[in-house]
């Protein structure tokens, strides 16, 4: 198992990650809400771990998350943004979304600025299409907003020595110095407000926040809180992570119905080798990719997903029928998403909305 900000490989043991990273398992009672009020990603435990979420909920918070524009977005990229939107709607909080075009340039030697610029613009449109509050959301590209945050980045950088960065991130003599400085830059938005910053993100990003928690109070700010999501399984099976580098193993946001069907029909199944055996022995939903997609995101009705699970385990629902259900639900989501994307105006989130205008007038030092 390899889990770090740039690489996730192997069979992921989430209990072991909680122990190694020193986080806490997410208890749904922490929200003080009924189960029906919780987002599906929380109540189905796709978000499984946290740091100081209870403190953030008690004292007040704002949301910060982000995206590195290195390619097209797929459904595995969506959970942090979908949960950020839920927090915004439920708690009426500001959301800040960093587009780290600088990090992707120094990390990926195969991409040039023109390619990163295209991916950044496309990714921003994808994120905005999810429907955030236009006046309480600020989406920014690091290479554009750097003048507003550079002084704060330098204050942070002065408190991080190379030995700490190497210990946390595994930097060595071959590491790009741009990545080393980015350690400081990614921390800056956690200081955008005096409240606690709450970050929904994959647990692979947690090393950044451990450093932030070490230095935040010395700069007069609060330690960051975080809520960590699992990794979406690729279409190859539950022991692999969706990766854009393997296009046939992911569901992109711009899939057409033909490619969606082809990918889902080829996806790893928990069914038996024959219809007769499946009717007799039933399937295993816990390893079936189509079921996992439905469970974690695309079938929010708890009664319906339980019925699907029971029918599949008992052999009353065949693998092909389960995949048809997944195709139907995912396609409905993608159709709605594409319709929103055609109408969305990214400028309001980046420059013209109330929060965006306020942010462009600020200098963080």
Quickly list its features:
Tyrosyl-Transfer RNA Synthetase, 13% strand, 365 residues, alpha/beta, 2 domains
Shape: globular
The amount of beta strand, in percent, is: 5-15%
The helix/strand class is: alpha/beta
CATH level-1 class of the largest domain: Alpha Beta
**Main pleated-sheet profile:** 7 strands, mixed
Question: What does this entry look like structurally?
Answer:
The protein is α/β, with parallel strands linked by helices and 365 residues long. The protein folds into two domains: 2-233, HUPs (Rossmann fold, 3-Layer(aba) Sandwich); 246-341, Orthogonal Bundle (Tyrosyl-Transfer RNA Synthetase), CATH 1.10.240. Helices cover 49% and strands 13% of the residues. The chain is built from 17 helices and eleven strands. The chain has helices at residues 14-21, 40-43, 53-59, 79-91, 101-107, 113-128, 142-157, 162-169, 177-187, 206-215, 257-266, 275-281, 289-298, 302-313, 319-343, 346-352, 354-360, and strands at residues 2-4, 7-9, 24-25, 47-51, 61-67, 95-99, 137-141, 196-202, 225-229, 233-234, 237-241. Helix 10 (206-215) links the parallel strand 8 and strand 9. Helix 5 packs antiparallel against helix 9 (177-187), helix 7 packs across helix 9 (177-187) and helix 11 runs antiparallel to helix 15 (319-343). The longest helix has 25 residues, at 319-343. The model has no long low-confidence stretch (mean pLDDT 93).
